[in-house]
């Protein structure tokens, strides 16, 4: 009887997920006593009734490495530790179904689980590992905010999308003598914003790690714009905030969704700049989920494939409770507990910050 490894994708979608799935299946195919199955929409596929499990074989994964999204679906709502249930009075609450999950996995004959996901998903991985589940983590996020790995797949594709947007906005900003603000994702870290600002040649880049002074930004814009002529591009991370203010966000009333919804930092900056009467038009663009979708770039396909191969090899080595990580030039394994212990903020003395300052990009300080 063959051994079974269950693969799932959790959290937000991300370019490169399918490349990881394909790599796991291709590597497992070299071991005659293993088969791969997938859970639809993260752990929901196991916990749902009826169970939603699919066999992942060579035919199923053929050519999927060039596709965005994930063929087994994903969700960032609920999960085995906080499963949404509706009370008799119509109110929603959550229950811990992790024991149910482990029992069902045993019933399905699952010997190991590979959980592909970001910070939240790997926190679930750690809790399940502590309950005795044989689990391996694969880091996934366009935000590049997991500190145990140099890069996460999906990040480079998101930067390409953001940079392409900056390139396009430059031409229209120059044509109309406008200041154009582009808001990008990243949650509490400014990796996407800073890379896109450097690659696209922006004048100003605002990131969560450096609360901005609006007067410093105004001064830079006055240097760029003379008597209503000239233009400027400002890249704003969704988590950017003024020195005397907070991040712009809202809470969600969606059942099972616990994260705050960041967004609106670009519009907030727009209003602040309009009040200063700079003498030129100012417009904003919010990229949003465009950064998550579409075909993964070659770099992300390769990194995702490396992660997939390594993840299955960790299963063979029974190195459970570990997450795959990229430590240039090697793909290694780190304890999941260590991987989720520290958020990957941009260090203010890092080379990427020094490069931005060396290019005279205003960081709002």
Write up what this structure looks like:
This protein has 365 residues and is an alpha/beta fold. The chain has two domains: 3-153 and 296-339, 3-Layer(aba) Sandwich (Rossmann fold), CATH 3.40.50.450; 156-293, Rossmann fold, CATH 3.40.50.460. It is built from twelve helices and 15 strands. Strands 3-2-1-6-7-14-15 form a seven-stranded mixed β-sheet, with helices on both faces. Helix 1 packs across helix 10 (298-316). The chain is elongated and about 80 Å long.
Q: SS-based structural class?
A: alpha/beta
Could you give the order of the helices and strands?
A: EHEHEHEEHEHEHEHEHEEEHEHEEHH
Provide the gyration radius in Å.
Answer: 22 Å
The proportion of strand residues reads 15-25%
| Tally of domains | 2
Compute the number of helices: 12
Largest sheet: 7 strands, mixed
What's the end-to-end separation, in Å? 63 Å
- The mean pLDDT is 92
What is the CATH topology of the largest domain?
A: Rossmann fold
What is the tally of beta strands?
15
Helix content: 25-40%
Unreliable spans: none
Layout of secondary structure:
Layout (H helix, E strand, L loop, with lengths): L2 E7 L7 H12 L5 E6 L4 H4 L5 E4 L1 H4 L21 E4 L5 E4 L2 H10 L2 E8 L1 H12 L4 E5 L15 H22 L2 E6 L6 H10 L3 E3 L7 H11 L7 E6 L11 E2 L10 E2 L2 H10 L7 E5 L11 H19 L5 E6 L2 E6 H4 L11 H8 L7
Helix pairs in contact: 1-10, 6-7, 7-12
